[in-house]
Amino acid sequence: MKTVFFDVDTQLDFVYPAGALAVPGAEEIARQLIYLTQFAAANHIQIISTVDAHSEDDPEFKVWKPHCIVGTAGQQKVAATLAPGADPPQIIFEKQQINAFANPRLRPLLDSVNADRYVLYGVVTEYCVQSVAFGLLEMGARVELVTDAIKSLNASDEQVFLQRFREQGGLTLESHQVLAGGQ
Ligand SMILES: [Zn+2]
Q1: What are the two backbone dihedrals, phi and then psi, of residue 33, each rounded to the nearest 5 degrees?
Q2: How many A from CA of 16 to the centre of ligand 1?
Q3: What is the pLDDT of residues 44-74, one digit of tens each?
Q4: What is the DSSP letter of 105?
Q5: How far lies 47's CA from each of 28, 40, 50, 59, 90, in Å?
Q6: What per-residue confidence (pLDDT) applies to 183?
Q7: How far is the CA of 58 from the centre of ligand 1 (A)?
Q8: Domains of the chain
Q9: Residue 33 C-alpha to ligand 1 middle, in angstroms?
Q10: What is the pLDDT of residues 74-104, one digit of tens each?
């Protein structure tokens, strides 16, 4: 079974308390992000990392505060989520919309990677992570959501998502179970 780690939007503007669109409490998942990234690199597991990459006048800013503008510090990924020198190399996938699948390059990329198991984590649970989760399930993939390495903005929205995710065949587990090599 080929596994890919799918890391969603772990960028400074979201994860750090001083970030432009900080997710409250997101720094609490930093330790898990380190372990997952190092585990993937040590075990030659492909990491695909989506990143928001907005222009200064991005239409999304009519809805959300400006964030993750290309060229700013806040757009950068949390250092612990980078795996320089990893084999296979980490793939950084830039996107401009909440749903990574809105970028038509994602599906061909995933087809070429051809994984049958995705270990999914990052922020924000009920937005960008949710979009990836359902997109991967629609592809027929096995999706394992790491519940202590995600963060939501709204707890009840997160619960609604988690219920739908499980109903559609999604699996949930904690990071220690990923690191133990199973679930
Ligand atoms: Zn955005």
Answers
A1: -65, -40
A2: 15
A3: 999 999 999 999 999 999 999 999 999 999 9
A4: T
A5: 21, 7, 10, 29, 5
A6: 40
A7: 9
A8: 3-179 (3.40.50.850)
A9: 20
A10: 999 999 999 999 999 999 999 999 999 999 9
Q: What separation in Å is there between the alpha carbon of 4 and the centre of ligand 1? A: 23
Peptide bond into 88 cis (omega under 30): yes
Distance 132 CA to ligand 1 centre (A): 14
Going from the Cα of 182 to the center of ligand 1, the distance in angstroms, rounded, reads: 32
Please give the Cα distance from 152 to 154 (Å, whole number): 6
Where residue 178 falls among pLDDT bands split at 50, 70, 90? very high
**If you measure from the C-alpha of residue 180 to the centroid of ligand 1, how many angstroms do you get, rounded to a whole number?**
33
Nearest to 120 by CA among 146, 158, 82: 146
Question: Which tens digit of pLDDT belongs to each residue from 108-118?
Answer: 999 999 999 99
Gap from CA of 76 to ligand 1 centroid (Å): 13
pLDDT tens sequence across 109-152 = 999 999 999 999 999 999 999 999 999 999 999 999 999 999 99
